[in-house]
Amino acid sequence: METLLQDIRYGLRALKKSPGLTLVVAITIALGVGANTATFSLVNGFFLRPLPVPSPEQLVALAIQEKNSPLGALGFSYPEFAAFRQQAAPSCEVFGQALAGSPGLTADGRTDPVSMTAVTSNYFSGLGVKPGLGRLILPSEGETMGEQAVLVLGYSFWQKRFGGDPGVIGKQVRINGKPVEIIGVVPKEFHGSFSTFEMDAYVPLSAVFPGGSGINFWTDRNKRLILAVGRLKPGVNIAKAQGLFDVISQREAGEYPASDKGFSIRVIPEKLSRPIPYANTAFLLISALFLILSGVVLLLACTNVANILMARASSRMREMAIRTALGGGRGRLVRQMLTETMLLASLGGVLGVLFGMWAGRLSGSIHFPNVPLQLDTGFDWLVFVYAFAVVLLTGIFVGLAPALIATRAEINVVLHQGDTREAGRSGHRARGDLMVAQVAGSLALLIVAGLFVRSLQNAEKMDLGFNPAHVLNVALDPQENGYNEAQTKDFYRELESKVKALPGVESASLASSVPISTFPSRQRIYVENQPVLPDSVLPDILFNRIDSGYFKTMSIPILIGREFLDSDNESAPSVAIVNQTMADRLWPGRNPIGQRFSMKSESGPFIEVAGVACDSKYQTIAEDPQAYFYAPIAQNYTSLRILQIRSSIALPSLTNQIQAQIRSLDPAVTIVDIRTMNESLQGATGFFIFRLGASLAALVGVMGLILAIVGVYGMVSYSVTRRTQEIGIRVALGANSQQILGLIVKQGMKTVLGGVLLGLLAAWAVTRMMTHLLVGVSPNDPAIYIAASIFLTSVALFGCYIPAHRAAKVDPMVALRYE
Q1: What is the C-alpha separation between 587 and 579, in angstroms, rounded?
Q2: Residue 582 vs residue 31, higher pLDDT
Q3: Does 267 have pLDDT greater than 50?
Q4: What angle do CA 298, 303, 309 make, to 5 degrees?
Q5: Beta partners for residue 266, in sequence order
Q6: What is the DSSP track for 8-59?
Q7: Which residues contact 604 (CB under 8 A, 6 or more apart)?
Q8: C-alpha to C-alpha distance for 151 and 170, rounded to whole angstroms
Q9: 3-state secondary structure at position 266
Q10: Are 190 and 119 in contact (CB under 8 A)?
Q11: Angstrom distance (rounded) from CA 717 to CA 314
Q12: What does the pLDDT look like over 703-762, one tens digit per residue?
């Protein structure tokens, strides 16, 4: 301990003597450590930090997986959920929620949008959440149609909207015009059962699905809206739970083959299901990729520091030789130098953690449009352990090689002749190898950044299958104001007529969902004259309910057949318009017009295909082509509809006119949501994830480029300094400035080109992870690889040229006297 304290005191004195070097090294390390801790804090908040509930390790997510389906995991229908909850009760308590969007909450004369979820009756009891104020939804309420609607507020929303007033308990408010009573507030630390979503309000299922609408949530086994979670009973592990749910799945498939055949349940640890089971694979992949990229930034920072310290070590060989002559062993000297390095790494680590905290808070303040995302980027013990490990490894990595180089020279040679060239040459080779690695890492980061930026450009220019420009979406649900089916139809008919008459409105139409903004309906279908075989699975296809003006409003081409007509109403034969993919999959090589399918049974009633529309994007920007069909909204009633208006005038002014028309028909009808189509496309399923990926990748790419160029400049400058006498001799023997310039640049560029070749291989390996994260660009895109290589080489050439130009102007008389 006494020796350690002595080493620390000496190390602090040595750092104090070189404040410039200390500052440069500390800042360089801070950049690497900060980037890594900030990234890890995000990953920790996403996947590692447990939910703030009792025994979180017992929680599992339950996702329905359809066999051979490209649509991924699905939710539960209410009948399925009730069956699984009852049958699994001895081993697992099953509960869940259905995301209810962003309805309007009206209180004290003001309406605010809220991120709301509808939960099962045992949701809070299953999680073990206790109320922060008032009470929560009880296991005895919330799943019976016609019940009194109640509301539980999220803590943050309670503070923001009601000022933390405890008097809100018992207050009557309105959700989309429907009266509800506030009964409680969740505790401060609880944000919902899916860790990345910040819920403003919780209501029972019966409040969102009262029954009687066109979508019969309570009985239709194809309406898979519930995201299920389970709490394993003591002594039950995931393997046992998986076996139990496999048995229940087989039982349900045998009893209800039309809806449940071909489905299986995946039991996933709650942490690995985040943010929800439907997207966990992509989020895990993105998190792993950016952890790797942050690690590359740290590696570049370390190589820079190692190069600096190795150059410094060469100048300390005489000092180390004197210490050895006075009895210091090599191990003791290495330990002394490692102590100095660890002090530098610790200083850089402290700065890096502070930088990481700032970056974490900055990223935590990001709000996604249309998505109630809550990024928990706080630093807990796991983040600090990770930061400590990073700092420790950094100190060892950057300090060991310089310490070995400084202590390896022959004592007699150094003391008697002052010759450190042999050790210097060894150190120079090591610095060259590190420089190759640094250029390689920088090139890999630039290629990744280029791929993400190109992907964003392609996504923004992508043909979505519809034209989002100049389209306004207005979501309404008159049923929330007590309208029956006939009154609802009359309201929409009159509203659509008034809106079409407004100046500047080119077209208007109604739909039950909006592409890449709201979740479309899905339905298993029976194709006429295609018998259902015992082992086959019925096609499960997305669809939208629309009226006759939809294709004109959205600018979706009809390829063959016809559009819907006003005469396609409830008294007319059932018709549908399918997209090209559905036509090709269900009736390959045949004319789809006149073909029929059923949403009810193998024997009908049948729906006739009247037209084929161009493929579009329906759920996400990056989705593969998938089967989809449109049904007339007049033949498939739903009270919640989106009025879509294409206009030649500015949409903000049109918004006011639309609101005025709705108020003129019924001031009590609440607008559920109103935004432009382009605004809707900025959400998490739209362009946001591409912009986020491109921004983060560009940031680490620029950091890597700066570190690499500084490293190249530093290495060539040091080489020039070491060879000053040699350069003087060459000039004295007749070498001109151009030859000296070419010599220095050539040697520096040999190292750079070696790094470029290695970087191309490293980029090829890293970009294997990006295949499903890119749109319209291959991970092997030669244009990106070539452009990044040329750019980095050009900038590195400039970094070599500056010290080479300085060397070419050396005065030979000064150089010959140089020591």
Answers
A1: 12
A2: 582
A3: yes
A4: 125
A5: 63
A6: HHHHHHHHHH-HHHHHHHHHHHHHHHHHHHHHHHHHIIIIISPPSSSSGGGE
A7: 598
A8: 10
A9: strand
A10: no
A11: 15
A12: 888 887 877 777 777 677 666 667 777 777 777 878 878 888 888 888 889 889 999 998
Average pLDDT of the segment spanning 500-516: 92
Per-residue three-class SS string for 731-756 = HHCCCCHHHHHHHHHHHHHHHHHHHH
pLDDT at 151 over 80: yes
Q: State the pLDDT confidence band at 214, using cuts at 50, 70 and 90.
A: very low
Do residues 355 and 32 lie in contact, with contact meaning Cβ atoms separated by under 8 Å? Answer: no
Given a cut of 50, whether residue 309 has pLDDT beyond it is yes
CA separation for the pair 19, 348 (Å, rounded): 13
Tokens 């920072």 identify what position? 301
What is d(CA 143, CA 226) in angstroms, rounded to the nearest whole number?
A: 13
Give 43-85 pLDDT, tens digit per residue: 887 777 888 899 999 999 998 877 765 555 678 889 999 999 9
* Gyration radius of the chain's alpha carbons: 33
Cα→Cα distances 655→99, 174, 673, Å:
27, 23, 11
> Which residues lie closer than 8 Å to 618 by C-beta, 6 or more apart?
515, 516, 520, 542, 626, 628
| Rounded CA separation 803/745 (Å) | 9
The SS3 of residue 789 is: helix
Q: Are 473 and 676 in contact (CB under 8 A)?
A: yes
**Structure-token pair, residue 126:** 């299953």
CB neighbour list of residue 763: distance below 8 Å, 6 or more residues apart: 443, 444, 447, 448, 785, 788
**CA proximity to 700, closest of 43, 32, 28:** 32
Find, among 336, 301, 300, the residue nearest to 316 by Cα.
336
Tell me the one-letter amino acid at 504.
G
Q: How far, in Å, CA of 595 to CA of 585, rounded? A: 13
Predicted local confidence at residue 429, as pLDDT: 67
pTM of the model: 0.73
The whole-number pLDDT of residue 13 equals 76
Q: Which tokens belong to 135? A: 């009470």
